[in-house]
């Protein structure tokens, strides 16, 4: 449904945010993972037709999204990472405005706005000015506008930022439901969000695609490469200097460290002879991908 | 240097640096260079900066001495500092609030007074820089047309003495308006313009009038722009002039008038003392600003506005777990069960939606504009310029931020990824602003059309010119203030019967097709520039 071919984006400052990025995305949720500055938001912005790439293109159901952005916009629901709202409008008025820009009108639009506001749990605050909304409520308005036009391509950048745990779970469930018959691209730093809903995961590093696999495949690549050990406090600094520790916790018997080591390349056995392999999590697999430990 | 002085200094540097890096400053400085070039007239033409009438009815002006050019620069400097300066610097604290920088600043040890003082000093520094751009044009003018020796005191003295107190006062008023509830936005811009009439005109003139002789011969104590002071000083320097016949500014006569030697504004101790003392008029608005400043605490702001804050309800002593409530919070109504919708995106619908948004966000001003538009259509023709003038005045703040609304609110990616929005944001905004302007002006336009097709076309082309100016300046500068400042300068010129500035043909200006076509062409040029910048931003990914 969505074909990305050789996308490159070089900003006037000289920063290359994306470099020859190619990917095929089908129905379901694509989880986009990567560190800050990896190029995720630039990719989302290009796919949402807000930013033009320097080179390369992408197609949505066969239509070129760079040459013909309207073809993409007709199918698109977009929630940017950092967005503002018109503070003097109510949520209902704001959605009415954006709905008209999407081509919706009349009673259909009004009914739809009522339904979507209920969906994001804002029906009780629909007629309050957005200037008085909390951060989480604004985020839900952003989610509402992205879903307003019944999009076939939903692009959401850090959608759960500012949401409380209940709303986060609620939104994840909603994404999983929306993904049926649609393409959803979810960019986030929260690996557990991706783990919960993603059908495939793309790991991005320095503007390039590092891995594109299902969560199960990604987990398999991390098997046998994740370890746990108990380290005396005084030895912690030495361990941290040699091994990338993914998690540590101080306990009565010492410091419990968890770390990844692809194929023993780091030689951790020399430093921590008592370490033992453990079941990898998706976060471990992601860290391994970032460290270059997956093929 | 004390820590406080360093904090204030850092604030001034950051603020001035931000302003100097904005496109708005470049446009403002370019406009000032061109405006100063036009304002200071070349000798031998019909325009003068100072003229007077002798007892026998003959009109005279001065030769182009250093004193004359210095006086001409000072009139423009005073006008710029007070009438336009406010619009160049107002909104800085509002911007900190909207971009949530205020909350970060509020959490630092910087005292509120130091924050406001930093803002004030940065306004003063910026306005001084802007006004100083008149000087190169004055120097060029003197080098080309000057008569007699170059007297630096007569050349630079007047602009320093007239502009500095104006800058000091306006910078303080901009700070006050920024923190006063209801005055920090577009409503404040209009209120300031109305206040200007009192500050610039009525108060100085009332002070200058000698109650015994009835002649304006006393130097006014409160005169930020210096207009009243200048008229008294020039009258003192020209005893041969008939009382009440001295004109200053950019005066266009119906013929070339003779030029004679003139000593210029007398820079005596009285004048210097009263102008330097005028800087102290900045203190009351700064004091009020400090009283009103809420330090970016929305709770304090609400409680100050109308004292409407109610006591918060008491929290329950114990919170019990509500399993049904928790389950309800987690269960969302199914997205799949929602009825399907059919979208038919169109540019026309997007233009109409944006015009409706302009109306909805127009505050109480929108109603004032509609009422004035209707009044301009039904009142006798003699009242039309006055009512129409007020209508045109209030129109400016309503449309000033139409093309930069998304940038100001940070809603650009949400809006510009919608299928109905045309590829050219400039043309989209032009459509919506023109639709809005024509809709609220309909009675006024119909009246002009019924009066004569030429008048109707003049009104329509003028309104389209205003729409183009608002859209292009908003997009180029990312704000509405520069448009409002420049528009108000044009409006003021039209109101004062400067013939080529009567953009709507409402104040006796030329209704001919060439003049109207020139307005439309000027609008098209500004739009083309805005479209070029928009295309560049799109490629850079910064729209």
Distance between the termini of chain B: 42 Å
Strand content of chain B: under 5%
Rounded mean pLDDT score of chain B = 87
Low-confidence stretches of chain B: 304-309
- Any guess at the CATH architecture of the largest domain in chain A? 3-Layer(aba) Sandwich
Distance between the termini of chain A: 26 Å
Order of helices and strands of chain B: HHEEHHHHHHHHEEHHHHHHHHHHHHH
Strand elements of chain A, count: 14
Q: Name the biggest interface.
A: A-B, 57 and 47 residues
| Order of the strands making up the biggest sheet of chain B | 3-1-2-4
Structural class of chain A comes to alpha/beta
Large-scale geometry of chain A: globular
Helical region count of chain B? 23
**Structural class computed from helices and strand pairing of chain B:** mainly alpha
Main β-sheet of chain A: number of strands, strand sense, barrel status? 6 strands, mixed
Structural account:
Chain A has two domains: 2-219, P-loop containing nucleotide triphosphate hydrolases (Rossmann fold), CATH 3.40.50; 224-279, Alpha-Beta Plaits, CATH 3.30.70. By secondary structure, chain A is α/β, with parallel strands linked by helices. The radius of gyration of chain A is 22 Å and the shape is globular. The model of chain A has no long low-confidence stretch (mean pLDDT 89). Chain A is built from eleven helices and 14 strands. In chain A, helix 8 packs across helix 11 (282-291). Chain A has helices at residues 40-47, 69-73, 91-102, 106-119, 135-147, 165-178, 191-197, 215-222, 236-242, 268-271, 282-291, and strands at 2-10, 16-25, 28-33, 55-60, 63-64, 76-79, 153-157, 183-187, 200-205, 208-213, 226-231, 245-251, 254-260, 276-277. The longest helix of chain A has 14 residues, at 106-119. In chain A, the strands form three sheets. A six-stranded mixed β-sheet of chain A has the order 6-7-8-3-9-10, with helices on both faces. In chain A, strands 2-1-4-5 form a four-stranded antiparallel β-sheet. In chain A, strands 12-13-11-14 form a four-stranded antiparallel β-sheet. Chain B is mainly α and 543 residues long. Chain B folds into two domains: 3-301, no CATH class; 347-540, no CATH class. Chain B has helices at residues 3-20, 23-39, 66-89, 92-98, 101-106, 112-132, 134-145, 152-179, 186-208, 227-237, 269-278, 283-292, 298-304, 323-330, 347-360, 365-378, 384-399, 405-409, 412-416, 425-451, 453-477, 481-495, 513-540, and strands spanning 47-53, 59-62, 247-252, 258-260. Chain B has a four-stranded mixed β-sheet, with helices on one face. In chain B, strand 1 (47-53) and strand 2 form a beta hairpin. The longest helix of chain B has 28 residues, at 152-179. Chain B is globular, with a radius of gyration of 27 Å. At the A-B interface, helix 2, helix 3, helix 4, helix 5 and helix 6 of A face helix 14, helix 15, helix 19 and helix 23 of B.
């Amino acid at each position: 449904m969505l074909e990305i071919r050789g996308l490159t984006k070089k900003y006037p400052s000289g920063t290359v945010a994306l470099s020859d990025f190619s990917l095929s995305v089908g129905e379901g949720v694509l989880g986009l993972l990567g560190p800050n500055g990896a190029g995720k938001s630039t990719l989302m912005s290009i796919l949402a037709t807000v930013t033009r790439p320097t080179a390369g293109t992408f197609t949505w159901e066969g239509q070129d999204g760079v040459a013909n952005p309207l073809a993409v916009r007709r199918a698109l629901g977009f929630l940017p990472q950092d967005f503002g709202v018109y503070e003097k409008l109510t949520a209902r008025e704001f959605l009415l405005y954006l709905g008209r820009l999407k081509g919706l009108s009349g009673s259909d639009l009004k009914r739809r706005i009522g339904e979507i506001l209920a969906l994001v749990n804002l029906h009780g605050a629909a007629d309050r000015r957005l200037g008085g909304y909390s951060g989480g409520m604004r985020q839900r308005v952003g989610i509402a506008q992205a879903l307003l036009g019944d999009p076939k391509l939903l692009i959401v950048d850090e959608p759960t930022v500012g949401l409380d745990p209940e709303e986060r779970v609620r939104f994840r469930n909603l994404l999983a439901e929306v993904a049926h018959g649609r393409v959803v691209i979810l960019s986030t730093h929260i690996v557990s969000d991706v783990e919960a809903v993603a059908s495939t995961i793309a790991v991005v590093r320095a503007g390039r695609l590092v891995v594109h696999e299902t969560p199960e495949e990604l987990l398999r690549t991390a098997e046998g490469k994740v370890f746990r050990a108990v380290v005396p406090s005084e030895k912690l600094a030495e361990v941290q200097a040699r091994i990338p520790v993914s998690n540590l916790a101080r306990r009565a018997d010492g410091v419990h460290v968890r770390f990844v080591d692809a194929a023993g390349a780091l030689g951790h056995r020399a430093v921590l002879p008592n370490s033992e392999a453990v079941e990898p999590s998706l976060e471990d697999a992601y860290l391994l991908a970032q460290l270059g430990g997956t093929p | 240097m004390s820590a406080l002085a360093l904090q204030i200094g850092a604030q001034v540097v950051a603020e001035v640096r931000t302003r100097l890096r904005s496109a708005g400053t470049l446009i403002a400085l370019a406009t000032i260079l061109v405006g100063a070039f036009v304002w200071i007239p070349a000798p031998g033409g019909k325009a003068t900066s100072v003229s007077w009438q002798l007892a026998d009815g003959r009109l005279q002006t001065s030769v182009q001495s250093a004193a004359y050019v210095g006086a001409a620069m000072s009139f423009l400097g005073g006008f710029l500092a007070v009438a336009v300066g406010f619009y160049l610097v107002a909104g800085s604290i509002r911007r900190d609030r909207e971009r949530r920088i205020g909350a970060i600043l509020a959490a630092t040890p910087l005292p509120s007074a130091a924050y406001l003082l930093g803002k004030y000093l940065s306004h003063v520094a910026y306005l001084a820089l802007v006004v100083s751009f008149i000087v190169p044009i004055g120097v060029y003018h003197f080098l080309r047309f000057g008569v007699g020796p170059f007297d630096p005191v007569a050349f630079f003295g007047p602009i320093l003495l007239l502009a500095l107190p104006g800058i000091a006062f306006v910078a303080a008023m901009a700070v006050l308006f920024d923190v006063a509830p209801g005055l920090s936005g577009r409503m404040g811009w209009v209120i300031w313009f109305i206040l200007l009439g009192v500050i610039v005109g009525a108060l100085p003139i009332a002070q200058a009038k000698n109650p015994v002789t009835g002649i304006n011969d006393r130097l006014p104590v409160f005169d930020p722009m210096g207009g009243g002071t200048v008229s008294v000083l020039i009258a003192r320097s020209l005893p041969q002039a008939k009382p009440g016949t001295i004109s200053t500014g950019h005066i266009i006569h119906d013929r070339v008038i003779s030029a004679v030697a003139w000593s210029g504004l007398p820079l005596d101790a009285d004048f210097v003392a009263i102008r330097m003392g005028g800087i102290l008029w900045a203190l009351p608005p700064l004091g009020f600003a400090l009283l009103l400043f809420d330090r970016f605490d929305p709770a304090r702001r609400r409680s100050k506005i109308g004292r409407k804050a109610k006591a918060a309800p008491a929290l329950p002593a114990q919170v019990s777990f509500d399993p049904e409530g928790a389950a309800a919070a987690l269960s969302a109504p199914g997205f799949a069960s929602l009825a399907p919708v059919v979208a038919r995106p169109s540019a026309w619908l997007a233009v109409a939606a944006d015009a409706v948004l302009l109306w909805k966000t127009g505050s109480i001003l929108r109603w004032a504009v509609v009422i004035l538009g209707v009044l301009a259509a039904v009142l006798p023709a003699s009242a039309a310029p006055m009512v129409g003038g007020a209508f045109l005045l209030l129109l400016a703040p309503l449309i000033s931020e139409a093309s930069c609304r998304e940038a100001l609110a940070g809603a650009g990616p949400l809006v510009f990824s919608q299928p109905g929005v045309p590829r050219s944001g400039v043309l989209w905004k032009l459509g919506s602003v023109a639709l809005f302007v024509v809709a609220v002006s309909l009675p006024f336009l119909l009246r002009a059309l019924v009066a004569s097709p030429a008048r109707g076309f003049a009104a329509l082309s003028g309104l389209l010119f205003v729409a183009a100016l608002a859209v292009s300046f908003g997009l180029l500068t990312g704000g509405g203030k520069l448009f409002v400042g420049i528009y108000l300068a044009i409006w003021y010129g039209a109101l004062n019967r400067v013939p080529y500035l009567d953009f709507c043909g409402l104040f006796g200006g030329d209704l001919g097709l060439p003049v109207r076509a020139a307005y439309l062409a000027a609008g098209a040029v500004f739009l083309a520039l805005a479209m070029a910048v928009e295309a560049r931003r799109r490629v850079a990914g910064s729209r």
